[in-house]
Design a protein that fits this description.
The chain has four helices and six strands, in the order ααβββαββαβ. The protein is α+β, with helices and mostly antiparallel strands. β2 and β3 form a beta hairpin. It starts with a helix and ends in a 21-residue tail after the last strand.
Length: 146
């Protein structure tokens, strides 16, 4: 059975939600290397992850990785458009995203911040969920590296 992208995103996000919960603080900003590129295996090696493959399709490859006691999702995409559509859908579920060209890592804020020191990329934040009130603004950082 071949799963389509609209079915993969919610399934992946259910796993991400179980892994991420609510994150807190993470102020320090270390030097960010040039954004990594390559296959899922190459990115996993750069991140010092032994990937546990979850999805291996033509349009998306996705694995679970571990950083100490924390888990995160590492995914690669066949196209930039497919990646952006996946991220836009995923952000509705909250979480923290480290975004590179045709790849994304999703996990706790501190985990993706640490990965950024190895893989480069841009930090993005999903929709905040919770019981407290929020100030106006979306708390999102979507700058572009160069």
């Amino acid at each position: 059975m071949r799963l389509t992208r609209p079915l993969l995103a919610p399934a992946a996000l259910a796993a991400v939600l179980a892994l991420t919960g609510c994150g807190a603080g993470g102020d320090g900003e270390a030097a960010v290397p040039e954004t990594a590129t390559g296959s899922l295996e190459h990115l996993a090696a750069e991140a010092e992850c032994a990937p546990n493959m979850q999805t291996d399709e033509d349009t998306i490859r996705q694995a679970l990785c571990r950083a100490g006691d924390e888990k995160y999702v590492l995914a690669t995409f066949a196209t930039d458009r497919g990646q952006r559509e996946w991220i836009n859908t995923a952000k509705d579920y909250g979480g923290y995203y480290l975004v590179g060209r045709k790849w994304v890592a999703v996990g706790h804020e501190d985990v993706v911040a640490d990965l950024r020191g190895r893989l480069g990329g841009t930090l993005e934040q999903g929709v905040q969920h919770g019981g407290g009130g929020h100030s106006a603004g979306h708390g999102e950082h979507a700058g572009h590296g160069g």
